[in-house]
Amino acid sequence: xxxxxxxxxxIDALNERIGRLMxxxxxxxxxxxxxxxxxxxxxxxxxxxxxSNAYLELQWYLFSLLFLxxxxxxxxxxxxxxxxxxxxxxxxRKRAWIDLLGAVFFLIPFSLLVIxxxxxxxxxxxxxxxxxxxxxxxxxxxxxxxxxxxxxxLLLQGVSEAIKRVAVLRGxxxxxxxxxxxxx
Length: 184
What we know:
There is one protein chain. By secondary structure, this protein is mainly α. It has one domain (2-178). It contains 5 helices and no strands. It has helices spanning 2-46, 53-76, 92-128, 141-169, 175-178. The longest helix has 45 residues, at 2-46. The chain is elongated, with a radius of gyration of 21 Å. The relative contact order is 0.16. Belongs to the TRAP transporter small permease family. One of its GO terms (cellular component) is plasma membrane.
């Protein structure tokens, strides 16, 4: 079990680093958005446009990365939106069972399915070096690659969460050590 917990901690550390990177991505995305808005408005008054489809698409790509790659970090911190009217009333042990079963029967299979289904789209995009059809648009193949990468990260975090829930159920790990925010 200790080996599995070390694997879990390594996965947690990876997704923590990526999540922290997403904080900076938000700032960069906002700066690009402000630049787009200001240059578009100035272009209306001056007749000189400094904005382009590339900046708009970059903003969309950054938002996509934030959403996709932030999912595993959000799961790690138990911050996903959930309706927990019943869940909150359950004992910690029952919540651990629900989380474990949810990870094993829903999260992990769904992540595997999305990786499998998205792979042909990504490989086709790389094969033709797909670019945006809009004038001045960006390449599409890098952002399409973010989809399976995101679900690999989510899959790994699901495995980590399952390991921690098993450790809690076996009494090897306490809820406080596990870091189960929202379990109280």
